[in-house]
Write a structure and sequence with these properties.
Layout: E1 18-21, H1 24-35, E2 38-44, E3 50-57, E4 60-66, E5 85-89, H2 93-103, E6 106-113, E7 118-124, E8 130-136, H3 142-156
Parallel strand pairs: 1-4, 5-8
Antiparallel strand pairs: 2-3, 3-4, 6-7, 7-8
Helix pairs in contact: 1-2
Amino acid sequence: MSDTPKHVPAGYHTLTPYLIVEGAVKAIEFYKKAFGATEVMRLDGPNGRVGHAELSIGGSKIMLADEFPDHDAHGPGHFGGSPISLHLYVEDADESAARAVAAGATLTRPVEDQFYGDRLGSLKDPFGHVWHVAARKQDLSLEELKRRASAEAKKHSTG
């Protein structure tokens, strides 16, 4: 074992989402049911709150904690929603969206084939975070992606 740790811990990627929620214990259980998350670790904070937890979904980790307003850590409800969404690739977007809805999420965009090659639907979890569940159906060249994006933009233009 080296005395010098790597700059990225084993099992992590260089970017890891960190979610602040109101009700982290319930959120952890929701993410397990909805997205098949595995709890990696949890540090309990004061008053039954979670000070820090780490979950694994597929090959990626997310970190989360309860709100701690005294440390300026607020969940989406504090801000009237979140401008950030999480994009989760899954084997079956339809099944994953249905499982998340059954666990308590709200479907905000139905699962449909998208011009960029994904089958995707969007959900809002009970804690205010937005998730896009997607399964890659087609790998496109950059040229084909640009062609399809242009055609899609023309379909939605008002002029």
